[in-house]
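Good morning,

Attaching, inline, the backbone tokens for the sequence recovery test we're adding to the shared suite. The designed sequence is right after.
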């Protein structure tokens, strides 16, 4: 018996870099796996790099193609994307990232895909200039294609929406990042305070790539300030690789804290790290809506983070973690010292944080918002209703 068009599942093909396992990749995986689990939308994927994302998607049985950017020219990548779109009879293209949007949009028009949507996961990590002409051109093409070709632009935070909406009016909607609150193992209750003081030094962790925007240098300065100025027995851990890794190791040495800063590199299994940390610090210059914070709050890890970008939304404007306005080592050290000295405040913050994530950032409800958005743009709906 033939399947009618009305019974046919919408096919949504995602274009994702997959070069590293970071926030955008983690969120794309949450969305794609959620779509597959719900069974309303059929997701397929094209990734630009082999790695964690490709392997995780393939393990779920999702149709994923590799348009390897290390082996193919942009034209070769477009050919691979086009082949995937045709083979899967894609209805909607969903891009994640600048280059992904440029190549994906070109492929969409070459294959006649009806609709497309872009998720913007955060602000650019650095301003593009003509000193790097290829990168600058990609950013310009991305902006033009987003304005003229996208049916909807998803901002992952209310803050990001305020940035994007003037550029892309009448098509910018908010669907915040989310996490599988049922899947993550919740940490056991904290030990009594007197046992905590008798244990190892207070462990503060930064989870993020070693790139300028993450401000690894500020984290190192904060650990030095806590030890030298506040006289606390603290140690820092940095979970992440990146181009500044060796530079930051030398920076820690110059600050005299080499023995108290542990560079973990990329950590495949973060559960032991979550279990061992006493606090998470996020001194980034800016963030979209960081997945790391959602994971920390769900596990009842205390958080100190910059009052910028989408961070205040995750921390419920200070009710679920300490926000730092003084973006300096002294500012972060002061807030972390507050956590150390006032455990009763810490207990209230982590309880609030876990409840906030469960209520506002659950996977099931936010995947449904994407499903509704797909249906709306397929119907060419002028009024999008996902502004939540």
């Amino acid at each position: 018996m033939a399947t009618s068009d009305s019974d046919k599942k919408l096919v949504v093909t995602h274009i994702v870099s997959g070069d590293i396992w970071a926030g955008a990749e983690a969120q794309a995986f949450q969305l794609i796996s959620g779509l597959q689990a719900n069974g309303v939308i059929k997701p397929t994927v094209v990734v630009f790099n082999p790695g964690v994302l490709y392997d995780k998607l393939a393990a779920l049985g999702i149709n994923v193609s590799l348009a390897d950017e290390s082996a193919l020219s942009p034209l070769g990548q477009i050919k691979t994307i086009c082949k995937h779109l045709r083979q899967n009879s894609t209805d909607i293209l969903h891009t994640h990232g600048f280059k992904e949007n440029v190549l994906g949009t070109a492929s969409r028009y070459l294959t006649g895909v009806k609709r497309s949507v872009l998720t913007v996961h955060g602000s650019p990590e650095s301003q593009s200039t003509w000193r790097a002409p290829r990168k600058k051109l990609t950013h310009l093409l991305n902006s033009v294609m987003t304005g003229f070709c996208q049916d909807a632009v998803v901002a992952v935070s209310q803050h990001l929406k305020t940035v994007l909406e003037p550029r892309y009016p009448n098509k910018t909607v908010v669907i915040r990042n989310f996490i599988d609150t049922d899947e993550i193992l919740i940490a056991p209750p904290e030990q009594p305070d007197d046992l905590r003081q008798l244990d190892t030094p207070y462990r503060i962790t930064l989870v993020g790539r070693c790139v300028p925007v993450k401000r690894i240098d500020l984290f190192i300065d904060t650990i030095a300030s806590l030890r030298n100025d506040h006289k606390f027995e603290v140690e820092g851990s940095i979970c992440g690789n990146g181009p500044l890794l060796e530079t930051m190791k030398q920076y820690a040495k110059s600050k005299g804290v080499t023995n108290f800063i542990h560079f973990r590199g990329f950590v495949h299994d973060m559960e032991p790290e979550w279990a061992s940390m006493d606090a998470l610090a996020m001194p980034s210059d800016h963030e979209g809506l960081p997945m790391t914070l959602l994971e920390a709050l769900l596990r009842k890890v205390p958080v100190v983070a910059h009052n910028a970008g989408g961070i205040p939304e995750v921390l419920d404007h200070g009710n679920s973690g300490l926000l730092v306005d003084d973006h300096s080592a002294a500012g972060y050290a002061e807030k972390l010292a507050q956590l150390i000295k006032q455990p009763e405040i810490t207990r209230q913050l982590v309880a609030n944080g876990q409840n906030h994530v469960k209520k506002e950032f659950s996977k099931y409800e936010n995947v449904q918002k994407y499903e509704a958005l797909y249906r709306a743009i397929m119907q060419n709906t002028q009024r999008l209703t996902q502004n939540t």
